Amino acid sequence: MSTENSKFKDFNFAEGELLLINKPYKWTSFDVVGKIRNSLKPLKLKVGHAGTLDPLATGLLIICTGKLTKQIDTFQAEEKEYTGTMILGATTPSFDMETEVDQTFEISRINEQEIYAACKPFIGDIEQYPPAHSAVKVNGERLYVKARLGEEVELRKRFVSVPEFDITRIELPEIDFRIVCSKGTYIRSLISDFGKTLNNGAYLSKLTRTRSGNFLLKDAFEVLELVNYIRSKKEEAKTETEA
Fold first, then answer.
1. SS3 helix, strand, coil % of the chain, rounded to 5?
2. Which residue in the list 54, 73, 96, 176 is annotated as catalytic?
């Protein structure tokens, strides 16, 4: 994208900027933070994100710089919207594609009416357990570290809100969905529980965050697009100083 695009502006990173980023597949949220922080060097600025996305998820990641990092908790608390795909008829230990399928189920007798009906128990205020393969900390250690070592982990129930859960496509074993939910909702856990509601199994195969609060994915930068722009502006400033 051209750096003359109206999407870009004169940033003041030290004073504080809110950056909307489309997190790439298999990048961690911290990878994105690190890439942007490095592009701002030699400035030593605080850079943080407002709401982790799993490495296998893509979509909207809010990045704050400078003084705006003090507001991260406010942005993180906002309602989120996701679209994604689940695979019905199988489970994995991580509830997504990070781990191999460990159990399969027959799905030929499940009809579309049953699938649509299975959404209803998950709409409203619900309780769920985070996946064992997650970044939740227990006694100071992240669950996924213990899970990858094969250690048993104690999962603690959490209460979340899901105002909307819609099925948008059914082509078994694939089912597409859209979910609007509160902070702290684990979509992987919800999909796993969805499979259990059908006396079956399900795991997440694709997930994209499309909205956080009033911020939309369609307005987000690609990571390298923004990094290259920042670097080009630094080169311009350097040239002007040397002239």
1. 30, 30, 40
2. 54
CATH T-level topology, domain 16-77+215-242: Pseudouridine synthase (3.30.2350)
- The answer to whether the predicted template modeling score (pTM) of the entire model surpasses 0.90 is no
DSSP string, 82-151: EEEEEEETEE-TTSSTTS---EE---TT--HHHHHHTTGGGSEEEEE---SSSS-EETTEEHHHHHHTT-
What is the architecture, at CATH level 2, of domain 80-212? 2-Layer Sandwich (3.30)
Active site residue 31: no
Q: Which pLDDT band holds residue 84 (cuts at 50, 70, 90)?
A: very high
Q: Tell me if domain 16-77+215-242 and domain 80-212 are identical in fold.
A: yes
Judge if the upstream peptide bond of residue 173 is cis by omega within 30 degrees of 0: yes
Say how far apart CA 108 and CA 85 lie, in whole Å: 19
CA distance 102 to 99: 9
pLDDT digits (tens, 9 = 90+) for 155-193: 678 899 999 999 999 999 999 999 999 999 999 999 999
Is the bond preceding residue 42 a cis peptide, omega within 30 degrees? yes
